[in-house]
Write a structure and sequence with these properties.
Length: 102
Amino acid sequence: MNIKFFKFEKSFKKKDYQVSFDIYWKVILNAVFIIIIISFIYGFSVFMEMNKDYVSSDVNMNEQVEKDRKTRIDKVLEYFSEREKKSEIILNSPSPVVDPSI
């Protein structure tokens, strides 16, 4: 007696058109890494350019900053001296209202 088992036929044809997503994910990841690296390089170059400009203009700006500081300090001192004069005037003037409790 010969028993015949069900045999699977080997078919090498694709049943449906299937897209391999692995390739697209690799392309996307590589593109993102390249964009990140380019942005770091661009940011560093802009930083170095701004840093050079700041150092070169810093020498000229020191005198201007000192003048601005002195004028600000003078304004503040003038304000407090005026307040001191007003306080002295108020303390030295007699009170116009007589206290009824005395």
